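TOPIC: backbone geometry
CONTENTS: sequence, structure tokens:
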Amino acid sequence: MGQHWKKIWVGSAGNMVEWFDWFVYASFATYFAGSFFPEGNDTAKLMNTAGIFAVGFFMRPVGGWLLGRVGDRKGRKAALTLTVTMMSASAVLIAVAPTYAVAGYGGVAVLLVARLLQGLSVGGEYAASATYLTEASAPGRRGFASSFQYVSMTAGQILGLGLQILLQNTMSDDALHSWGWRIPFVVGALGAAVIFYLRRNMLETEVYADVQGEDGAELEERGTIKALLRHKREAVLVIALTMGGTVAYYTYTTYLTKYLSNSAGLSKQTATLVSFCALTVFMCLQPLAGALSDRIGRRPLLITFAVGSTFLTVPIMTMLKHAGSFWPALGLALLALVVITGYTSINACVKAELFPTNVRSLGVALPYAIANALFGGTAEYVALWFKNAGVESGYYWYVAGCAAVSLIVYLTMRETRDIDLKTVGGGAKPAPAAPAVAERA
């Protein structure tokens, strides 16, 4: 049990820093948007930065393919170490990017390169950590263990928001807009360096170590598109079941602060505090829901999320726009995040449980990254587009519609709770007689 917890801790800690770097771009965008673009409409500036945010998502399929292949061929540890290296480099680039006043659109170019690098990194990070946490968990505890992926993701965002609140209360607004927004990216780069050391010394999962005895064609095809194509149905299933969850998740996490300040009229400080408090509760709910899925199955939680998101998104978003103050906004945000917990707490293990070990990392990474590029990464931009067009409520229906599509998938998919990770897919070989040896750097 102790070794399982050690693996979960190391995998989660790295994931936290990865997503801190990923999310501080979104949470600090209101402060640095004016630094990289000429004077103009505030919503237009946010759309420009949101567009660059979305570009990072379109690199995620590439990162999913590249790092998913590394994870299946070289090991989960190798992929996780590579992702945090790239994320550290991207944080450094953003921290030193020149402003529009200094280099014109040269600063935008640096920002774009950094986001592309982040997209590569996160495209592999999700699958590598989802696979690692699922495989490293004890039998019958995969839902609970894999829920720590979103615990760590949310913790990263909470740390980013906490740092934002600290800077808002210790720096002037002018200083934050001028140079203070660079601080979180410096912090992220330093944190990534620490995680790099931890991941260099992490243990490989026994499930992956067991397939090291395979040879011949199976070894050559491990982590390849050819191997993935044998599981086309599962790959399409990952895209479909991710669609509603990722749109809803990014709506109530990365976009929420902007929505509350840009549409609901709350101050930036109040909007940030609402997000901080709501996400703290949300983070604590993940292990509870994950443990519940180990008892009753994955499908009941997924169906609950989809039904709630389909029918409650429009009223919640409408009321949020007219919340007016901290407490009503917090209550509505919490309601939305409780609903989304049905997806976030278990989606990592559900996807990992669909694929055999020799293609699990790629099988999770590539379809998930495609779904995120199409729906998650564009969520904020689509929301701002509807707002700029004067029909903001259209976005509420868009989110509800995506959830409805996923609901159909959840109602028809098979239960994955009791699947044996070593034999899923029907093509896995029995574990070799010799005990697996844990790898260390």
